[in-house]
Amino acid sequence: MESNFVDYVKIYCRSGKGGRGSMHLRHVKYQSNGGPDGGDGGRGGSIILRGNHNYWTLLHLKYQRHVFAEHGGNGGRDKCHGTDGKDQYIDVPCGTVVYDAETGKYVCDITYDGQEVVLLKGGRGGLGNFQFRTSTNQAPRYAQPGEPMQEMTIIMELKLLADVGLVGFPNAGKSTLLSSLSSARPKIANYPFTTLEPSLGIVGYHDQKSFVMADIPGIIEGASEGKGLGLRFLRHIERNSLLLFMVPGDTDDIKKEYEILLNELKQFNPEMLDKHRVLAITKCDLLDDELIEMLKETLPHDLPVIFISSVTGKGLPELKDILWKELNSESNKLQEITSEDTLVHRDKDMSRFSEELLAEGADVEIEFIDDAEVEDVEELDDFEYE
């Protein structure tokens, strides 16, 4: 069964071309030398991205491969102005990042509801010969063509907006923790890669406060080389201000697994190592107090560490206290201000771009559509009499 969670689409966009100006000379009864009266062409429609909080995936755009804006109408006689082309709006969920599919260059980022970004601007309409009349050229026999359209194939990626991101190997208890702390109900089973798509949950805190937690599919050693599900889901925790690393308590070497996870994040984006981190040792209902004290001596000392059990609820209140404290620490707030744009405005790595497109089921080659409706530019000596 195909999932309804779509966080990656490729779309060909084309704005409207401007209408051409009219070259017309007024010639009616009793007014043989009426002069020029050709109107201006209309403006072409633009392609505009708009943030919409009613969407949470890009599913509605998955099968919309082409988005075209209307062309501007041509000018007419009697100084009639051509109709303006209708703008085409593309509604996307908040957290959508847009890249140029040809070069991988960052284009724009939609982060809040109602935000509008003009992706492709429509061409301006050409001026009619009425605009070129002068005292020395009272009957100009030329008009401007409209500006051409713009086209681009774009890649849209959804990066979920959350406060805390869960990072861990498969079967580390991430989905169980999310279901214990929030009303989210991700799939939970006793086999690897149970989670195949990211999940969001709102975690309640004291005095009606809350924060958002994001669960992503587990990563394994070598994920940066494409093993397992790869690293493509890590973009969903790129925006998170706090990372919660989760390692099961029955692991042979907890510190080593933590370092492997850190290395995989470094391979994906080195700037993610600058985020605040918390380490949670899960499944502690399988450990006794003596073993827990022994494990504390071998754990990293450069970040908060807590032992929890999502099944029995052990350590969960203390975990929420630690997460809330780290989220609202002054150093974390200052870090968000200084690094707000650096994570978002990175270009895509084109060396792995083709493999990423294939993994998402998209076409590798860039597709462009020839405009069959393109009309020839009006000749300068082509004019009409009424």
TrEMBL record:
Mg(2+) binds at residues 175, 195. InterPro entries: G_OBG, GTP-bd, GTP-bd_Obg/CgtA, GTP1-OBG_CS, GTP1_OBG_dom, GTP1_OBG_dom_sf, OBG_GTPase, P-loop_NTPase. The keyword Repressor does not apply. Residues 162-328 form the OBG-type G domain. Residues 3-161 form the Obg domain. Its main location: cytoplasm. GTP binds at residues 168-175, 193-197, 215-218, 282-285, 309-311. Keywords: Cytoplasm, GTP-binding, Hydrolase, Magnesium, Metal-binding, Nucleotide-binding. It is found in: Cytoplasm. It comes from the Bacteria. Gene3D superfamilies: GTP1/OBG domain, P-loop containing nucleotide triphosphate hydrolases. Its EC number is 3.6.5.-. HAMAP family: GTPase_Obg (MF_01454). An essential GTPase which binds GTP, GDP and possibly (p)ppGpp with moderate affinity, with high nucleotide exchange rates and a fairly low GTP hydrolysis rate. Plays a role in control of the cell cycle, stress response, ribosome biogenesis and in those bacteria that undergo differentiation, in morphogenesis control. Monomer. Belongs to the TRAFAC class OBG-HflX-like GTPase superfamily. OBG GTPase family. PANTHER family: DEVELOPMENTALLY REGULATED GTP-BINDING PROTEIN-RELATED (PTHR11702), MITOCHONDRIAL RIBOSOME-ASSOCIATED GTPASE 2 (PTHR11702:SF31). This is GTPase Obg. It comes from Prevotella illustrans. The lineage of its organism: Bacteria, Pseudomonadati, Bacteroidota, Bacteroidia, Bacteroidales. The gene is obgE.
